[in-house]
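INFO batch 0412 | record 1 of 1 | parsing
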Amino acid sequence: MIKFLEINKELPYLIFKKSYCKALEAGQKNIEAIAISSFNTKTQEVDSRFVNLKFITNDEFIFFSNYDSPKALSFKSHKQIAALIFWPSINIQIRMKALIKKTSAEYNQKYFFNRSIEKNALAISSNQSKPVYSFNQVKKNFHESLSNDDLKKCPEHWGGYSFTPYEIEIWEGDEFRLNKRNLYKKDKAAWHHYILEP
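INFO prediction complete | emitting tokens
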């Protein structure tokens, strides 16, 4: 689930929250899953992956990850991302373009402290996306961390990312392809609304 810590009063955020509540009522599984696409200027490659969206605080969308991962290197080289959510239970797709940044060390520590020790052991022990000889080595590293590490202290290589959209499209699917597409683009302080053809 996604925790809404503050409710932004601007229209695209209100529509997002309304759609979320509707999907939640419809029993949407993995409702917090969000695809993040990034571009790495060094490798000249685009990449996508699903992450768990944890919080929405005012206009910021927040998830957590390993700061040495491939996506972290992409974010460092190119701050602009695209994000995508699809809730098939209500046939709504939400597309966003945004700028991304790290959350503070204090924020990361507060969140890490309240997580389960099992999740924290994995965050500490995993060199995310690095090749490993076998899955048994992954399990060994995890259990060693579980037994030996301070599982309430957030490591420097792990923490949050926050992104603030400047473009949000709400797509509502229709069985006859008469899909409703409402686009919101932010120009300085104001959001502008456009209706797009299917």
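INFO post-check: Residues 11-25 form the longest helix (15 residues).
INFO record closed
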